[in-house]
Amino acid sequence: MAKTPITTRGAELLRVELQRLKSTERPAVISAIAEARAHGDLSENAEYDAARERQGFIEGRISEIESKLSNAQIIDPAALDADGRCVFGATVEFESDQGDHFVYQIVGEDEADIKAGRLSVGSPIARALIGKSAGDGADVQTPGGMRHYEILDVRYE
After folding, report:
1. Calpha distance 82→129 (Å, rounded)
2. Number of helices (H) and strands (E), helices first, in the chain?
3. Chain centroid to CA 92: how far?
4. Distance, first Cα to last Cα, the chain
5. Is 116 helix (H, G, I), strand (E, B) or coil?
6. Are 68 and 55 in contact (CB under 8 A)?
7. pLDDT of 70-99, one tens digit each?
């Protein structure tokens, strides 16, 4: 199976979520199931059904996170030496042909958050920027038509 790139920050966030699910959420749902079971008839017990559904969600998420971490290729952006090229983990400052200014870090799918300045590596803009350096241009097909972006700076933070 191919490794999935993730930043050190993203991997740490997944580890924290996994720890919380295993140490807090899982025991809480187990006690909720036991309490609902103590109320008697399970066939008409909405609390029991809800707790079992929540347990299924938690166990599924635990499995998903463990799988992601086992297949992760953890990349520390601060340790990158890409000769000024835009690569996974780099923070890119660029400007659109319409004068809009952007600063995004290119991160894995699970870490993406546009409002926080983290752009998914699978997004059309990130794919167009990868491999480019400061001063280069990138054309991206958007729903509103073709857009041109000029890369102003590439940093590894």
Report:
1. 14
2. 4, 7
3. 18
4. 29
5. helix
6. no
7. 999 999 888 877 788 899 999 999 999 888
The dihedral through the CA atoms of 46, 47, 50, 53 has a sign that is negative
* AA letter at 9: R
Calpha distance 142→145 (Å, rounded): 5
| β-strand partners of 95 | 101, 150
pLDDT digits (tens, 9 = 90+) for 99-139: 899 999 999 988 999 999 999 999 999 999 999 999 999 99
In the DSSP assignment, the letter for residue 2 is -
Strand (E) or helix (H) holding 35: helix 26-38
Tell me the domains of the chain and their CATH numbers: 4-74 (1.10.287.180), 77-155 (3.10.50.30)
